[in-house]
Design a protein that fits this description.
Oligomer: heterodimer
Structural class of chain A: alpha+beta
Number of helices of chain A: 15
Radius of gyration of chain A: 30 Å
Number of domains of chain A: 3
CATH architecture of one domain in chain B: Alpha-Beta Complex
Number of strands of chain A: 17
Distance between the termini of chain B: 14 Å
Number of helices of chain B: 17
Chain lengths: ~475, ~500
Amino acid sequence: MSDAEYKVIVGLEIHVHLATRTKMFCGCELIYGGEANSRVCPVCIGMPGVLPVMNKQAYEFAVLTALALNCKISNFTKWDRKSYYYPDLPKNYQISQYDLPLAEAGYIEVPLESGQTKKIRIIRVHLEEDAGKNTHTLGNFSAVDLNRAGTPLLEIVTEPDMNSAAEVRALAVELQRIVRYLGVSDADMQKGHMRFEPNINLQITKAGAEYKTPIVEVKNLNSFRAVERSVAFEVRRQLDDFGETGRTMASGNKSTRGWDDERELTVLQREKEEAHDYRYFPDPDLVPVELTDEWLSQIKAHLCELPIEKQKRFVTEYKLSDYDAGVLTGDRNTAEFFDAVVKAGADAKRVCNLLTQTGMKLANEAGCNVADLGVDAASLAKLAKMAQAGDISATASATIFEEMANTKKAPDVIAAELNLIQTSDAGELEAVVDEVLAANPDAVADAASGGKKTKKARGFLLGQVMQKTKGQANPKVVSQILNKKLS
Amino acid sequence: MADAILNLTCKQLRDQIAAGDVKSLAAVEAVFAQIEALDDKVGAYISTFKDRALEAAQTIDRKIATGESTGPLAGVPVAIKDNMCTDFGTTTCASKILENFLAPYNAHVVEKLRDADAVIVGKTNLDEFAMGSSTENSALKQTVNPWDKTRVPGGSSGGSAAATAARMCFAALGSDTGGSIRQPAGFCGVVGLKPTYGRVSRFGLVAYGSSLDQIGTLTGDVADAALMMNVIASHDKRDSTSISENTAPICDYLEKIDEDVKGLKIAVVPEFNAGADRNVQNALKSALDIYKALGAQIIEVKMPHLDYAIAAYYIIATAEASSNLARYDGVHYGHRTEKPADYVEVYSKSRAEGFGTEVKRRIMLGTYALSSGYYDAYYLKALKVRNLIRTDFTKAFEKADCIMMPTSPTTAFKIGEKIEDPLQMYLADIYTISANLAGLPAISIPCGFDADSLPIGLQILSPAFTEDKLLRIARMFESKTDYHTRKPKLAGCEK
């Protein structure tokens, strides 16, 4: 296909588990896992005579997310039954939203590797209940675990606005960051809190004509890697397929494929889009939801500065690189902790280095967030200021940060205890410099020569001063003195 | 003694038990003696709980003897339709598919009866999943009309109506989706009240048509209906369609039951009523005469959309049913086919074996009505008709306090007479269905007998949440007549 140009076109359907206290339509506590069928009640297993009651928190989380996705929030929404038979679906219908989703027409701004951002349009956001799980490990029998049944599930559908596997991944990552910022989902991929279903095809230009390949939907991807690689694979496969067969998009030839994580390829599941008739109709057991202005503003009060906004602000306000700003805004706690330390008067770049080079390593070892290392923002700001003032070296500041986390002591106390305070007293240091200069006339000559030995000789003299002061001299100050003396 | 007890109303029995004049144990024993003597013939009960009931009665008697406070139905033996969940015994819905189903919870109304210290003696027969007008669709047993054993008791609450008529309980709960309380009440000569949709929680009522289903009562007289309403009417946060007491207050329905409604205006729909048979029309006319004599004004109104009620009902109810009954699939509970070839057969065979003909018919009708390409023409159109019917009622109630019409076009028909002709069977509900579509309260009270000495029901409908007034209007008639005091010969205790 070397003679053809092509454009990748991808839209996403995303399911996000909401981290509410209880399930969508019953009072069961929402806890992941557990012994099969231990986290259920008559309502979520659909026993005769039971009735669903809407979880208000789930609806509020859904609206909050839709707000963060810049959607138009509907002030009237209703519940519909989507009928299909499957063993993991206890009522054989799923309570979902059909023609009146709770929100529509938004967008998500996604940061790309280039440092640019891209707006991906959102078609709709709606709320539904998750099904249980079928397992097939019992020989002739299959087993059904309904623990997950009734978990609030947010469905987000995007326009086909993504044009590469990397963009799809970037959207997935950004959405995870957003829902975690909002606190509406743990968005733990391993626990299936987020599941992605890309719809992929190509727009191929060949010999002046334009062709579209048949759309492929890849089902149930639950890692960023799988999302990216499955799209990349589909691009290659569809290109090859078009080259071989010339097949183009036509009504009814959308197919469904699954992702084989081990072989890293997609596998055909359903050749033709079956004409599913879900027989949607309004659920007579639930009343429609009317969102008043007052309620909406209560929900809006829970909005926070979104990660992409924070990231941009860190670049403009704190002059951080886009990369650093991206790392710091990866999660809300880190970002807010960073912000607090800087606002306590510390230099942003220095705090950034402390957090990204030392703090995140410590947090990683401790299995927690940098904000939860036990070092408060004021103390960390103090440490950064000490380093900034030259009272301690950069190396020492890392050591002190670690000790602060371990001992909860103040940075100056630790610096004193560990003898990490640098001498910046020019008078004191000048005497040492004089001593060193007197003891090393050859080096002094080299250093003053202006020749190619100068740099090395100056380094040597600086090293001698540091040795004599047991490393406690501020190298900056020593350099200045040396410069003055040798000029 | 037993006969004397069985002739009491709920309220009388309740008062006598509370006063210590009658023991609850004696009442429960009398009821079980009656059940043991009659139910082989009547077939009203699917299950009874004799030991449990006797024990409960003794507990109540002890409480009363020691002066402990007791509930408003303390010691009164009552029955419930077997489509309401109980955490004791089975909840079968008269279906093979749920024949052995043990609910792990009580329906809201069962909790209410328990809290009122009522004694539940058994669970009554019904058309399978409450789908039918004769109780002939029960997959478990045949119930007959206590007034004539060759005739149907009506349905779907036929067991509750027959048990109440034959004094095998003092009151019973039924459910009414298209007339399933009122029509059997009319056929069996008892009082049947369907409250406003949302007045009584549906939690624990096995759903048939969720937007139409309403639990109500079958009692010997109107005062007992009021007493039962005092117990079961309440808001329940487990049912989202249950109406809060702030929106529609609940009053003591018994308090003013004997106060006549002054300046009563009664609407009638002459064209609509003309479809009833002559005996029924005559009884209606006599009833209206009695009201006129009491000072009521009769106003003729037109309700042009009532003619479409049956068509709309059989689309909405079956659509909802097709979805509500999807869960009976043999996977999680209930009947499962023996040797399915694959998981699809678990569904298809379990359901084919478990459901009866009428249930299957309605599931298929409803599935069809909701199918893509037909939804607008059937389901959506039916919803529009439903709105028009609501409007008809709103307009009628601008002119009158209530509407009166027959409960059914005929008296109880013969067993087997209509079972092969579903359309004829559906027409038996022509007068009752519109109250469900509009969500209104309606009551059927005994208003006469036909040439074959079969009871005739008078139906009264009133605006939403006016059960208090509805009951008082019904009580006005009752206080001037004795139809409600007559008992079928079979009961052995006619006055």
